Write the structure tokens for this entry.
Amino acid sequence: MENTIIIDHLYHRFDGHYALNDLSYEVRQGEVFALLGPNGAGKTTTIRLLNGLYKPTSGTIRVFDKNPVQQGSEIRKQTGVLTETSALYERLTARENLVFFGRMYGIAESVLLKRTDETLRYFELEKRADDRVGTYSKGMKQRLALARAFLNSPRILYLDEPTASLDPESTQQVHDLIESISKQDDRTVFLCTHRLEEAERLADRVAILNSGRLLALGSLAELRRQFNPGLWVDIDLLRPLAQTLDIKLLRGVVEGTVDGTKARFQVDEEGVIPSLISEMVRNEAQITSVRQEKISLEDIYFKLQTEVKEGVK
Amino acid sequence: MNWKAVFTIAKKDIKEASQNKSVWMPVLIVPLIFVVLMPVGMIIGFSSAMGAAENPMNDPDFALFLQNMPDSMSQLISGMDMVQSSIVLILGYLFAPFFLILPLMFSTVIASESFAGERERKTIEALLYTPATDTELLLGKVMAGFIPAVLITLGSFVAYILVVNGAAYPVMGRIWFPLPSWYALILWVSPAISLLGIAATVLISAKVQTFMGAYQSSASLVVLVLALLAGQATGVVYLSVGVSLLIGAGIFAVDAVLMYYAIRTFNRDKLLASAA
């Protein structure tokens, strides 16, 4: 998979401290990449640097193989950004907002009005399209801001805290829209969030930051492998086993306990689980449920942030 | 340079400004005072307070005032009675620098809304993520202040011509306004002073956070206009065509320096830093 963003030993000094401190990673074409971190971790700064709004103190950035400092305008033609605040012109209507930004992105007049109508429809705003944005709810404003970011069919869509101030219903709507957008046209989505469940739901790969430093990077499965002490399976039984199960005879099972109607095993890999279940059934176990214990992104995130606080990282 | 982007920004800013009461109220009220209420009030006042047949040179104060004026003014009012000469001197001569308040006020109020107002409402960031370059952004916002300031000043001038000639017609008996010096003032000095207001606003907007703060600071330029007014009233400066052309050229030169400095210092990095 081609890399659309390459960041190499990036430093950005701001107000006497390093907002970004020796960052290096790549973002691939077509993936949803999430940047996770507490406030002040450097997420918004990263988006601004990638679009040429800031100049880095040192290090290199390539976006579409271009340098944002010298070729920011060319890069911004192919990107869309949902800013942290919706940053909409509240005295203008939704349609006027989109037409203005469409013109700024150089969309031809012949297609702009049609594209605006389609976008308004896609984001379910067509009924209020000619109302002033100042009269919109927070959820509607966020959908419109997302529509603005999406209007120029960007190759990279940056989303800065897309659901930070939304209620659960609006959050769900925005998540559905992001999922749908990310699947179109091999689009890269660069998601900055401190909502872990958001990253867990939407992202293919995750980078965890603290004070501008990269703490971890990888897919959720990779991070789980990296941070999980082992793969555990919990099994519930209808009644206790009639005969003792010799765990040592089960291939791929590292350790385990059976206590009445609860059994717990550590296995080498996921592939061991079906044979473990077969073996238990052969031992006349009446299984009511099987749960694979997975370390969550939240567990990984807090483990890393705690390590930073304690000075381990 | 992408001029389409420049004019798209200008058009949007003008539309937004037109929907802001703090912007359009002064744009509506001040011309109404300067262009309609004051001239009509003065003409009515002069007509009722002075004897039409009176010779102005018989009034010692008036004669002293005329002594300080250029000869061309004395020639202009020769043969006129007290009311006629008062109308010409006040509305055709002394009022000229007063009129420069209009482009200065229009340009600073719209530019303040365009620069500081956009930052105040936190809408600037989305604009900075568009492909427009720093220069295009700056020019778009300069145009947003300049175009309406020049057009509204021209409109106000046309209205002033109609009001002054119309209201004074029973006294003057002819169309006497505008005097030649006004063309240079409106077509040359007024655009220069509009640009001056915008350049000052751009530079001030980098330091202040709010629309009102930017407007109040840049509006202090009105002192320049008041200085011209005092100069004209005391006979130190007479805004003839030649003097107006010179003053306009001087202001344009200052505009060029300020704009050059504004373009050099206007960048996304600083705008975001000051908006944070």
Summary: The mean pLDDT of chain B is 83. Residues 134-172 of chain B form the longest helix (39 residues). Chain B has one domain: 3-275.
